[in-house]
């Protein structure tokens, strides 16, 4: 509050103070994560950060409270709730146990390959159901296996880090793999960037990054140094609740229909994937596959943690904090060479998305980055930079920052995973070293061999 940062813009200045407080509490874990998230409106409203949507001036406390509390639930959280419900249904019918057993049969004798299998499965799934739903589904598959490890081993920690990093990386794979990719496609809507072109650009860096992240986890964490094999997940059911084959088939069919609807992006029919996510909720609870007790035991703390990200994003937008940052960036880079502009922009994106939600950063920065790209002079050569190259690589960098749990939902999902006693496996600091290494390596790839690759693929669109 008392540091001379953005003092000419009081709402932005106060927003910087709010971010400092919330990030500090999340890093130090002084209070539970969801409590920190719920602290945001308590601090933001008195600081007069929120803007009135009618006047665009600072809102009164009564108006600001309505606006910020309206961000507690949105379509992304409904999507997550749908993923949680599918995961709960898979668990109730023991289907996730059979999936885990199949993975076990292929890789159990070599734990490192098991980790790689989990990471590859996660990244591929992200391409079709987004890296919001995918980590929930995969965690449901491997949860029981994690519980079977001895308490003194680092194996669950390594697997959960692998899951988080793989879902971040998998979020680059297609235009629907993450919200930030959707933002990028929106700002490039007049440039004819196709689904196939995006995949062609992203696939090489995704494969490279998965292998690199897997190797970094094995070298840094050594998660399997005391483990000779992956423990077999025992398929068991609660007394009196042995699921029938019909129930299992029903769960699979409904889940597949939901996933297919997510993949084909049914905006015309349903308007949003969040509405599609309500289908398994209504069907599974309505038909008795899941009970009221199952609904009450969903990860509601996760919902409120995501609400914290929504509210922080609102504060950053309404206070003009990131707008000021982005405009200053535009003015600073205007006189630089196109390639240096690309390097500096991707560096800034990497820094900001380390501390701010990937999606929030994309929503604020990518439109500004696109404007910078459209002002670039025409170039030739393997390191030529076009608007498409600049925006797509910046969007990929949004997913590539993963040093803190607050950076992305996949990180949050792994952070909140608990052992059979209800204790979390990971702490916030566990992401820092491996996540920073992967982020730096990814950054170096984007500003070197990915530039000519992106130009070669995307330049053919013009």
Automatic annotation (TrEMBL):
Residues 25-392 form the Citrate transporter-like domain. One of its GO terms (cellular component) is plasma membrane. One of its GO terms (biological process) is phosphate ion transport. Keywords: Membrane, Transmembrane, Transmembrane helix, Transport. It is a multi-pass membrane protein. The keyword Transport applies. It is found in: Membrane. Pfam families: CitMHS. GO terms for molecular function: phosphate transmembrane transporter activity. The chain crosses the membrane at residues 16-40, 113-143, 155-174, 195-221, 245-264, 269-291, 297-316, 337-370, 390-410, 431-458. This is Sodium/sulfate symporter. It comes from Trypanosoma rangeli SC58.
């Amino acid at each position: 509050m008392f540091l001379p940062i953005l003092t000419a813009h009081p709402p932005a200045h106060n927003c910087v103070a709010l971010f400092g407080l919330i990030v500090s509490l999340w890093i130090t874990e002084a209070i539970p994560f969801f409590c920190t998230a719920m602290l945001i409106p308590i601090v933001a409203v008195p600081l007069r950060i929120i803007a009135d949507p009618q006047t665009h001036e600072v809102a009164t406390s009564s108006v600001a409270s309505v606006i910020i509390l309206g961000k507690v639930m949105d379509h992304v959280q409904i999507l997550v709730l749908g993923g949680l419900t599918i995961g709960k249904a898979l668990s109730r019918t023991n289907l996730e146990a059979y999936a885990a057993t199949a993975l076990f049969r292929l890789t159990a004798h070599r734990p490192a390959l098991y980790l790689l299998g989990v990471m590859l499965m996660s990244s591929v799934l992200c391409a079709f159901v987004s890296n919001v739903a995918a980590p929930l589904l995969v965690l449901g598959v491997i949860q029981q296996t994690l519980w079977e490890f001895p308490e003194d081993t680092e194996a669950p920690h390594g697997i959960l880090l692998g899951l988080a990093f793989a879902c971040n990386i998998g979020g680059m794979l297609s235009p629907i793999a993450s919200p930030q990719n959707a933002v990028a496609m929106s700002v490039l809507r007049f440039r004819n960037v196709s689904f196939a072109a995006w995949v062609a650009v992203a696939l090489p860096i995704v494969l490279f990054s998965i292998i690199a992240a897997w190797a970094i986890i094995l070298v840094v964490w050594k998660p399997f140094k005391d483990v000779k094999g992956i423990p077999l997940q025992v398929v068991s059911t609660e007394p009196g609740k042995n699921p029938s084959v019909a129930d299992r088939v029903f769960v699979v069919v409904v889940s597949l229909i939901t996933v297919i609807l997510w993949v084909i992006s049914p905006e015309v029919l349903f308007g949003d994937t969040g509405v599609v996510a309500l289908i398994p909720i209504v069907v599974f609870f309505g038909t008795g596959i899941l009970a009221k007790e199952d609904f009450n035991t969903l990860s509601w703390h996760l919902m409120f943690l995501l609400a914290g990200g929504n509210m922080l994003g609102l504060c950053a937008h309404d206070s003009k904090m990131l707008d000021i940052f982005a405009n200053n960036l535009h003015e600073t880079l205007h006189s630089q060479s196109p390639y240096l502009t690309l390097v500096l922009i991707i560096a800034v994106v990497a820094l900001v998305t380390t501390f701010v939600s990937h999606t929030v950063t994309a929503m604020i920065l990518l439109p500004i980055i696109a404007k910078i790209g459209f002002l670039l002079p025409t170039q030739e050569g393997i390191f030529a930079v076009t608007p498409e190259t600049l925006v797509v690589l910046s969007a990929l960098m949004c997913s590539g920052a993963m040093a803190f749990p607050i950076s992305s939902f996949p990180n949050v999902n792994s952070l909140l995973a608990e052992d059979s006693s209800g204790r979390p496996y990971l702490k916030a600091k566990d992401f820092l070293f491996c996540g920073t290494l992967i982020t730096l390596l990814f950054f170096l790839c984007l500003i070197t061999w990915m530039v000519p690759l992106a130009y070669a693929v995307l330049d053919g669109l013009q």
